[in-house]
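Quick question: what would this complex look like in 3D?
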Amino acid sequence: MPDKDGQVGTSPKRRGLRHHARSTLPRLLRFAIEQLLLLPLGVIIALAWVNAAPESYYRFTFSIAFLVNDVGIAFFFALITKEVVEATIPNGVLHPLRRALLPVVASLGATAVPALLHVRIVESLDEPMLTIGWRVALASDLAIGFFFARIIFGRHPAVPFLLLLGIACNALGFVMVALFDPAHDIRLVNGVLMLVAALAIAAVLRRQRVRSFWPYVLIAGVASWVGMYWSGVHPALALVPIIPFLPHAARDPGFFVDARPGARDALSQFELWWRYPAQVALFFFGLVNAGVPMGALEPGTWGLPLALLVGRPLGLFAGAGLGLALGFHLPHRVGWRELTIIGFVAAMGLSVGLFFAAAILPPGQLRSELSMGVLLSLAGAPLAFIGAWLMGIGRFSNERQQR
Amino acid sequence: MRTVGRALVCVLFVVATAPGTLLGQAQRALPNRSGSVKFAAIGDNGTGEQPQYEIADQMSGLHKVFPFDLVIMLGDNMYGGQQPADFVKKFEMPYAALLSAGVKFQASLGNHDRDENVLYKPFNMNGQRYYSYTRNNVRFFALDSTRMDDKQVAWIDTSLARATEDWKICYFHHPLYSNADRHGASVDLRVRLEPIFVKHGVDVVFSGHDHVYERLKPQKGIYYFVSGAAGQLRRGNMSPAEQTAAYFDQDQSFMVVEIAGSEMYFEAVSRTGRIVDAGTITRQAKAAAAGSPPPEPAGSRR
């Protein structure tokens, strides 16, 4: 529980040290350390372990897979949801909501084109069973995308556009996975009733102005988890419908901006408490889901990264074109060159891509090929840098270099 | 003249013991008894190319003297296009003689097959990705190793527990043990399936995926065969290990098997009709088998 300063579970000395360390690091570097290190570390360990001692790797990861993929990662998705919820309040990138309309329309193209391309490529590479991976082609990693977009663009309207696009792509992906890949035998009526009960509990807690996040998580969250499990929806999303009920601050501090240590609202307290445990869950998520034995790979592995790296920018053009035709406007200083770079950055699907692959396929050759495809989609980062350099945009623009 | 003869013997010896071949031609193992269960096994066959047709011709020829009535298909039954014309070219034409003789094909799916192939009548899958059937005292279990989900794992566990037949034979595409370089063993599958196979006393497992023939030494009391070269071939791809009992990676091949009582006789036959491995497996009560190593089949290299 938070102390009088709003800090959660830390001594004043530790808090002081942490505050000192945090204040001396540039914000983006701090973001990288806190958000982007543990998942890739888990991925690297998984790749090394599975190819050196596969039997022990599988015995260990199979034993913790349920705990990680169905429980632990729920807190990561909860934190992402928290960012989205805050984005809808004043000062947020989703406030007012009509700002999101063009990225939402653009996401239709940015998801449909890579999905269709993936199907065509794996068919032509004679791996028809991999066509199921079109859901994975919908994913976009928000944290990693934000990191590289900030390096390339700095404080440019392209960054919130990318975030909105990523949120919309992932939302479509989650809907598709829920529709096409029920997790197991469904008990729909029981599941829906339990979900409704979970939402009702969360609403009552909100109405009673409960300011601690724990009842939301432990009562409504657990009920939501059971409801989703019974409904066949992946229970890792259990906290997604609950988080919007948590009382939040009046203004959004910004996307991926840490909550103030003294913040008293339940949503900020939730972030302060779960920020690091969620990163640990992400580490184990990478460890459990990214173990790809090289012998399992077939040419079809190239289908997903090619579809994402080619299809996402092309689909973004098509989707943005549709949005413009419908009368929406691109943000100021965002044109086709910026859209190209946004497309490459949004092609990277690390965390959400691995999640979709694990949600739709059991361990085995097909999941290995898709997981490796997700990892290869990280080539979007160097492509974005090269593209930005060639086109002279963002940090590579003449105007900025002259300054 | 004697020198020439010695040279000829030396040449023949070198050829016979070259990597990837077996030490001499294995002896015919099939007793061809009436009333026994006779079947053939083919994997990775559906190329529609000449080697597949030549293997099919060997199967047809053998069928005349060894009338097997079942062919188990170990996956990748179709490569490339899978339109109706492809099923004619890659299945119905090569195996026309066997099909017209009433031989029943029972398929399992590989990673190059399409989901909807479970509906193709001559594969006899009845729309199921995994299923089971019997022949006399043998129960066969065809699995879908490309998507081994929890439901299928629970199914095989339950089905094996209920099986009362003397012999339990499983077949699927990805091998639990393999010493071919290209793919090798599917260890993730092994971790999930092997404990179930051991618990329920599975006797023999057939797989494909690696385009070679390999017979493994019994692993935890179970005999494993990789037979993935009935159309495709990855020549010289084997790196035999301690667990390899015999292998052949120089030409396409298929297997024929006969089960009579507690004996299983098998042969691996090449595209040219050469028997490249043969032997007999004696099914033992599982409790006894743990203490006594199974007999080494004839024709083995090790």
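Answer marked as accepted. The first helix of chain A runs from residue 12 to 24.
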